[in-house]
Amino acid sequence: MRSPPLAKDGELRKVDRVQRICFLLLSLLAATSLLVPAACSRQPETVESKAAPAKPGWLTNFEEGKRAAKAANKLVLLDFTGSDWCGWCIRLDREVFSQSQFKEYAKKNLVLVELDFPRMKPTPAEMREQNERLAMKYQIQGFPTIVVLNGDGQLVGELGYMEGGPEAFIAQLEKMRKG
Question: Which stretch, 3-17, 36-50, 97-111, has highest mean pLDDT?
Fold first, then answer.
């Protein structure tokens, strides 16, 4: 038995090129077949799963906050914030809202409602519309703006970022609360 004749140099290059193209196409096909089932089997996202959750202890629904405040005879604190881009908002959250002294005060005296205007976090359309409507109603010019209401939804006062941590912030809230 004789072995087949050796291919010439040009023929080897053609075979090599065809093999490379076939390998590339098969690789693309394999990669695509791995991605498509994962994408197709994913459950559709609900409005809740897209919503950036509020900070612990905070509501995002204005009407719910108003009802809770009225029932408990507390003030409503509306935090108009740009939580993922506004430096002063982030600072207010870090220096005041996340401090145990403020949390204890809020638990006894306030219903906290976060009205967020994020740039990078997805926000459900309902929440975005509510927040925009309230920003227009209270003529919000910048962030952060804190609007304080009584249980009937009447304006008690407004605040913004202030130095002094939770002590200074609580002192201003106490002035509003006592009228």
Answer: 97-111
